[in-house]
Task: inverse folding
């Protein structure tokens, strides 16, 4: 059992954003569903309109503690390959960041994509909860809990959309993908 724990600890320490694409061949063996395969190989963002920055970028003032939380989160996102340093160019969309307190006293960084999302096609998605999953269980079934903290980041974004969104903090611009 310790070797299995060491294996998974090593896997979490070497996390890389967009890593789901590395398994696309296996996904093609499992399914022919075009929506699943698009998600695995490079998710397209469906735009209703071309994102345009209507107002000039204005980052709200963060406290020293909030700035420290944002800096730590940015460092983690850089390490995981979720964001990359970028130079702002005309036509790119810059989103602000803000923080919310967590139960443990630290702050959670939130990328404010509210303006950006007004350009994205909305698809309703109903997520099941624990109670609907329990209702589906039959005697002899087992349940497990999996930490999906970074699961969202494993889905690659197709290259056409990679250059469009940015966030700016402490006058550093980062490209999201």
Result:
């Amino acid at each position: 059992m310790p070797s299995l724990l060491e294996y998974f600890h090593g896997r979490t320490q070497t996390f890389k954003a967009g890593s789901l694409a590395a398994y696309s061949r296996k996904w093609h063996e499992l399914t022919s569903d075009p929506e699943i395969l698009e998600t695995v190989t490079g998710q397209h963002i469906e735009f209703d309109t071309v994102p345009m920055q209507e107002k000039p970028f204005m980052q709200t003032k963060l406290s020293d503690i909030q700035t420290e939380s944002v800096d730590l989160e940015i460092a983690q996102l850089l390490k995981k390959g979720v964001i990359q340093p970028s130079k702002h160019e005309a036509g790119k969309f810059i989103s602000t960041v803000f923080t919310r307190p967590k139960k443990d006293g630290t702050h959670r960084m939130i990328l404010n994509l509210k303006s950006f999302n007004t350009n994205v096609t909305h698809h309703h998605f109903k997520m099941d909860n624990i109670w609907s999953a329990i209702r589906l269980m039959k005697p002899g079934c087992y349940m497990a809990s999996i930490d999906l903290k970074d699961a969202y980041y494993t889905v690659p974004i197709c290259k056409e959309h990679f250059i469009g969104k940015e966030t700016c903090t402490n006058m550093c611009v980062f490209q999201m993908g």
